[in-house]
Every structure is written in C-alpha cells, then in structure tokens.
Design goal:
The protein is α+β, with helices and mostly antiparallel strands. The chain contains 12 helices and 43 strands. It has an 8-stranded mixed beta sheet with strand order 36-37-39-38-40-41-42-43, sandwiched between helices. It is globular, with a radius of gyration of 27 Å.
Length: 722
Amino acid sequence: MKYLKSSLFICFLVTALGSAQTKEITLDAIWNGTFRTQGMQSLHSMNNGKQYSVLNYEKGSTAIDVYDYKTLSKVETLVSSSDLDDLKGFSDYTFSKDESKIILATEVESIFRRSTLGVFYVYDTKSKALIKIADEKIQEPTLSPNGRKVAYGFSNNLFIKDFDTNQTTQITFDGKKNEIINGITDWVYEEEFAFVRAFEWNADGTYLAFIKFDETNVPEFSMDIYGEDLYPHQSVFKYPKAGEANAIVSLHIYDITSKKINDVKVSKPYSDFYIPRIEWTNDANVLSAQYTNRHQNELDLWMIKAKSMSSDLILAEKDKAYIDVTDNLTFLKDNSFIWTSEMDGYNHIYHYSNYGKLINQVTKGPWEVTNYYGFDEKNNIVFYQSVENGSINRDVYSININGKNKSRLTQKEGTNSADFSTDFTYFINTFSNATTPPEYTLHTAKDGKLVKGIKDNKASAQNLKAYHLPTKEFSTISVNGNDLNMWTIKPNNFDPQKQYPVLMYQYSGPGSQSVANTWNSANDYWYYHLAAQGTIVVCIDGRGTGYKGAEFKKVTQKELGKYEVEDQIQAARQLGQMDFVDASRIGIWGWSYGGFMSSNALFKGNEVFKMAIAVAPVTSWRFYDSIYTERYMTTPQENPSGYDENSPIQHVDKLKGNFLLIHGSADDNVHVQNTMRMVEALIQANKQFEWMIYPDDNHGIYGGNTRLHLYTKMTNYIKENL
C-alpha cells in the first residue's frame, strides 16, 4: 500500500513536471510575433556578380550593406540613414540599372493591396549627395538606366525629373481621379494582373512607354469609412464588376528628346481588351506588349518599333479556358526570348527567335515549372524552379537551353527557392519544410554545391521544441476519382481508439495551393493550438487547384463552386468513415474564395458539416471584379446559370448547421456587399446564424489587436459549435 502510494506520487510528479515543460501555444503568442523567423530583406545581386546587398536595421538606423558571395563577409555600407541629416530611416531601396543611384523610400503608406504613396529620395553612390524627388507623396519612382533621370506618378499624371538640370517635366496633363490614369494601373489591374507601375524606360533612357486607363465609364463603388470623426466619409473608386464596363486602355511612347507622346496602334482590331504587360527588349527601339481579349483565352505578343511606330504580332496563344499572363518573358542578347506556357498541358519553358519562331521547348514532362530564374548567356543554361519532386515540393534546377543536361541543384525535400548572382556563379537558396524553419544557404550555380550557411533560424527551431508541436502529416486522398493532396494535424496525445471532431481548412481558388511542404504560417500555429484543444485539422486541395496540370486546374471553368465544393463534401464524408473521427462533428472554414467555399459546403453538404466559418467571402460572383471572374466564368450575361447555381446566396434555405460570417467593412476587394446580401437572404429564409463586422478593415482584417480578436472569436466559436 505504501509502495503504491509512492509510485502514484512519483507518476504524478513526473507528469506535472512534463506538463510544466510543455508550453501552450496561445493566441496571444501567435499574433504578437513569438513564432516569427528571420529573413534577408530586400536582397539585391550587384552587377559585378560577386556581391549582394541587403537592408539592415540597427540601433534606430537603416543601412544598405554589401556582402561578398564567396566569403559572406560584409564589404561595405553603401548608405546608412545615420549618416543622412534629412532621413531618420528608409523602408526600401531600388538601384538604377548601372547602380550609380539608389532610390530610398520613406513615409510609405498603402493605397490598395500593392499600391503605395511615399516620399522618395535619390542617393548618389559616388558623390554621396541626397536629392528629394518631390515634395509631394508620389508613386512608383523609377530611375532611367543611367540614373540621370527618374520618372514617377503623381495625381494620375506622369513626371520626369532630370538630375543634371534639377528640372521636373510633366509629360501628361489629362490625369483626373476616377477618370484618367497615366502610367499607374487602375484598381482591377493592380489586384488581378498584380502590378502597379504601368510605365517602362527603354534600354538607353530615350523613350518612356506607358499605359493610359480611361475609367470614365467604369461604375463606381463606395465604402463608408467610420474613423473617429463625428461624421463618416466615403471612399469612392472605380470597380468594374463582372460584365460591367472596364477601363479603356491605350499604349503610348514618350520621346525624351522631342518631348512628344506617340500613340501605339497595333494592326489587329481589338474591341474589349487588356494590356497586362509591357517590356522593352534589348533593342532600345523595340517595345514588347502583351494583349489579351476580355475572356483571356487569347494572348498576343506584339513588338512595337518606337521610331516608326509600326507593330508586329510575333506570338499568339489560344486556350479553351484561359491563359495565365506570363511574368517570365526574358529577352536574350540576340533578342530571341524565353516564354512560359501551358500549351502542352503543363507550365513549361520555351525558347523563341526574335521574330516569334519556336526554337525549342526547353522543359518537358507531366509536372509544372513554378518559377523561371534566368538565363546564363555564357554557358547557355536556364535556371528554374519546379514540382518535379512532387507537387507539394519545390526544387531548383538547371538545364541547357537546348533542353539537355538537366540537373537538380537542391537536395533537401521541401520548398526551395533561389536568388542568383547577376553572373550566375552563385545562388542563395531559401529552404524550409513542415518541420524546418527557413534556412538561407549559399551554393554554386554550376552544381548546387553548398558553399556556406547564411541564416538558419535554429534559435526559432530550438524555442519551438518547448511547445512539442504535433506533426503535420502529408498524404493523398482519393476523392471523386482524383488523388488529392492532403495534410492532417492531430493532437499530440492522439488516441486512435477515441473519436475527435475535425475542422477542414481550404482556399480552393483556381491555380492555388494550400497543401505545401513549407514552414508554418500564422494559421498553422492556430491549427496547432486547436489540435492541443482536441481537434483534428485537415486541409485538402481539390479540383481546380494548381501545380497538377492544366486539365486538373481548369476543370472548374464556367462552374466556380461546383466541383471544388463536391470534393470538400465528399472528402468530409470519407473522413467521417474513419474510426477516430466523430462524423457528427465536422466543420469547415475559409477566407475569401475559401469563405465562398465553406459557405457552399455547409449549405449543400448540410448532412455532413456541423458548422462553418466564412471570412470575407464572395457570395455571388456577380459582385466580384471583371478580370478575375470573367477569366473563369465569362460574363454573367453569357453564363447566368454558372453564376447563380453555385452562389451560396441561392442555397441558404438548406442551412442546418452553425454558421459564422465575418467581414471587414472597408474591404475594397471582396466588398462587404457580399456579406450584406448573404445576411438578407438568411434572414428571409428565417435561418439563424452569427456574424461579425470589423469596422474600417480591409480584406486582410488586421492592425492592432484585430487579428487576435478575430482568431479568438473563431476559436471560441469552434469550441462551442463543433
């Protein structure tokens, strides 16, 4: 009896000590930066190919420090805010092509997702002089190749400042808010074509090409901004919804010498089109421009001669569904070019002559090229990233431009991404996987051989050991005839003899990926937190997601919300058949497209899902923007059934489970209109639900304690309703 009591006491003591040593992942810790890792900010490879620069912060000052690739030792500090009387610090920097000048960004404020306003300075690396570009807050300042001029946007017009004369020239005069924009993209281009600066210097700084947006006839959208004043004010901007009028775009070339603007006229008649990319070739007289029709299933590459203003169509692609705009167009010394395309069913690299004749397909196979890094002219080698080692992984490869002698340059399984030196002697590899925080290492580009480690985040990894995180398990699940990528996070004390509730997370948008072998995001730590509370968390990438070929991705064409929802519902059914899953306690959540999905899954799969959370959801594609929506759905006028039959608003009568709806009132992307219309439909269907509006928050719903509050609310809702 005494022995038994002693044994019980010792067991209790060991258990208590073990518990004391295991830290709890709290929501506070997740959102106060406890799990943040270190990186290399604003990495730039210097022209000499032997050095690189990064942005460093130390003792209240900001500096651009230069390091040697071979030794990784610091060579010099190019500029430090501590040495500049007019600057307390700067948040980013950009070199001129010849690296004689550096633009320093200060007082930067966001406009939309990518666009900003700021006060910018130019620093001369030789004279050490600092020049303020403009007294006003401007957009996208860009130095000419020789650094002697800078072009920028201000109040919807374009300006050029000449440092030799200290004179500023206004080159457009018709810019007007919500009517005409010169050289800066409108809202929908910024969001969906992912760029803001719509002007480009040519190779010798003699021409400036720019796109003009006439959004006069684009319908306006307005949002109330409540703020702290007695009366709220409205934010009004042009937002073309699906099927509505887009901005009329036109391409122009400004001649620096004559100070004349010439209008580009291509020989093919376009009635409703986009210009998603412009790029000068190595020939200072030749500008390339990508044009696509409104359906985005035809993509044309034009070459425009600045002197004669003549144009030649050198490449034209067509697709039954849509064509993704390529960011990988690269002109070689002979003006032949690299191009990426899905024309054979997978995204691959192609080499074309300067007049558009296919020289050869550089990469081939039933896998996707996910990034093109560049071309080593000296050795005729192309460098790229792909999913050849499994669609959830990324590796860096080299291959001769003729498609031979392919070599895998990275060896660790997970996500590898490279930043090459200018002369392709070295690359800095960023590696992580589900169990390894980001590691930064230097390698030789020739064979991928490790030269030296740079940063490894071992301290972060060591700190995490105290939390005893559960393992993120990767697998596949066969659903509706397809093997879908999946990860699962189970509680640390998982017992297969018990039954657990399951929370499914997904995004599911076309070409997206949520199941990836990479390091934790903030959401992952939240899932570990939920697992510690006894919930299994699962993520499944269904049909329509990316990196498994065009056929798998484009199956959802004209039917967004049909096949993806069917996959999540069927997957939930199959999970419910597992012995350790409580089939009566399966929930689903998502944000944006994922919120659209979780809403539909709860309504259409009402016998499967007990609860759902939808954050900033699209509730009808009729409410969303033209470029994104029509790429996958065509217009509502052409495809009304595709829009309406898959809208969760049309299925609110099927709601049986628990539903939490969340939105930011100042969401310029997925407007709160989506939630308001959903709420009204639920009310009229007499369905009970819960909802939360975050005042003046955009699509990201963050700032101050906002994220902590949001995830606390969702956590409590899951505990109470799953």
